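Obj.: predict assembly geometry.
Materials: sequence records (below).
Method: joint structure prediction, all chains together.
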Amino acid sequence: MVNAIEVEKLRKEFKSYSSRSGLMGAFRDLFTRNYKTIRAVNDISFTVKQGEMVGYIGENGAGKSTTIKMLTGILTPTSGKVLVNGMNPHKERETFVQTIGVVFGQRSQLWWDIAVQESFRLLKKVYRVSDQDYKEHMGHVIETLDIGPLLDKPVRKLSLGQRMRCELAAALIHNPPLLFLDEPTIGLDVLVKLKIREFLKEINQKYNTTILLTTHDISDIEALCERVIMLDEGKIIYDGSLQHLKENWGEGKQIQFTFSKEVTDGELGALTSDLQVEWRKGEQANSWVAHVAPASISDVINRVVTRYEIQDINIHEIATEEIIRNIYEEGAVHG
Amino acid sequence: MDKYMEMIRIRFLMMLAYRTNYYTGILIYCINIGAYYFLWSAIYSGKSSIQGMSIEQMTTYVAVSWMARAFYFNNIDREIAMEIKEGKVATELIRPYSYLGMKTMQGLGEGIFRLLFLSLPGVVVTALLFPLHFSMNITTWMYFILSITLSFIINSELNLLAGVVTFFTLNNEGLLRAKRFIIDLFSGLILPISFYPDWAQQAMKYFPFQGISYIPSMIFTESFQGQAIINGLMFQLIWSVILLIPIQVLWKLAKKQLVIQGG
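Observations (raw structure tokens):
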């Protein structure tokens, strides 16, 4: 099996300056500046196999976009080795970019003032796609993404959801074996999201396209990716299957109680002190959420219900988002 | 090459997308040529020639300078600066083409559009209003076409250079404004170089600016004859080659230390 992406000890440092405060500070900044080096990506290593769909997640500023920009050859790494589709993205930029497709959710790569089909036509020429291939492949893409009626409209007149579907189609004109998606579903409604996910699954199956996806919407990852790479402050803190993550961190249930009277943390803690449970204040008034290990579920419910008057009880599976939040709060993945 | 041709077409479409700009463009050219015509008529007032140029040659010089400007002038420096400022350069660098080459082609598309649809109608309108003298000599036209092509190359190279500097400064609005003014002044658009004092004329031999406007306009008005034409063209050719060097060097450096602004 060929690796689509091989990254070893990749590092990117930025030099940035901090402005001094006040008017005097601004004058001093004219002559000397306080520079400091920020390490946005800190010695990360991973490989992605051909045909994998990988979710690349992390908080804002964790270094996701910087990594993608290095993998696509836009930024030059400070140190480390990058091999994508068997090429060094910076050394052979023009041949290399023929083999990848990129969607940046936050910026358009279509030409703003002209009709979508003109952008497509230009990209078709740029990537030297033959008429036959274009008709066959793009005909299908246009149909699946349902953008046929949008083709003769200028990009500036499209809604965000319409534009995003066109962006995706534009990134696929040359049918690349590797697709980078940087927050492709940002700001989209549920229907468009579903459509895009369906479509990504389909091309992954049909062409064995490798997809690397960054997103803040965990449901995207749940729907698409078997594997996640989690990044925090430039370092990989988890690399493995989503399933594994859930089993290790998502054990137990969340039980939400709504009491009719005010209850304090201390009282609840004392009541269940010998059980494996963690209490947290809920979002509504008088509501508390218990994070309970499977063995203690019935005991917790039993004790709380007999002691207090309850208005409502809800039992949830622990959400992936919750798991990820826990991991970030602790800063690393154990086990 | 196909993709570069396509880019010229796209630029045409983009220029056509805003019709108001198009019509006001013609008007602005007529006003500019008209204003300079009256200015020069006042300066000549009765004299038959100044610095070896008759008033008719001078008004033609002005009209032709503006017409040529429509072709060589472009905003690719501003566009590069903008794309860097907004981080859009990222989407350009994932395309299998040379970024600077593509920008030059966009400039060419813009230039051809302006020449055909802005300045030709503009000159026709002005020719009806003011006495202009157009050469009927076919070789003059040939030299002129060759010369404005080189003008376009020199000016675009200067624009690329100014644009690429943005990769380092991240915001160079002031520099771009200064560059534009310097080019209008020293290229001979506002005043023919032969009107400058001797020391300034000597100094300007070491700068590429007169290759942008002065040389093609002098060729067109037949103020340059024989060897002077060849010298002028050689001057342009040499500069268009020399300027490639700093562009390549800066571009290499720029790519290395590129920062994508705004995430």
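Conclusions so far: The mean pLDDT of chain B is 86.
To do: check interface contacts against the pulldown list.
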